[in-house]
């Protein structure tokens, strides 16, 4: 995998994590715009989405520092 592809994937995952963490209502509307008319997400959905977004951000930020991440970047420890 090239460094450009790796960075592109990292940026997409970072954007996804930020969307999950800060724009949970918008994400719910994107996911369910054809399923529900006038519905609202539950508090559990909002909490779970924020937790998933936070975990995704941690993973995106820490993965390049792990041995598999460094190997994809062509570096070694």
Percent of residues in β-strands: under 5%
| Largest sheet entry | none
Q: Using the alpha-carbon principal axes, give the shape.
A: elongated
Range of helix content: over 70%
Question: Structural class, judged by helices and strands?
Answer: mainly alpha
Taking Cα atoms only, what radius of gyration do you get, to the nearest Å?
A: 16 Å
Question: Residue ranges: pLDDT <50 for 5 or more in a row?
Answer: none
Give the averaged pLDDT, no decimals: 85
Q: Quaternary state, please?
A: single chain
End-to-end Cα distance, whole Å, is: 19 Å
Note the run of SSEs as H and E.
Answer: HHHH
The total beta strand count reads: 0
Number of helices: 4
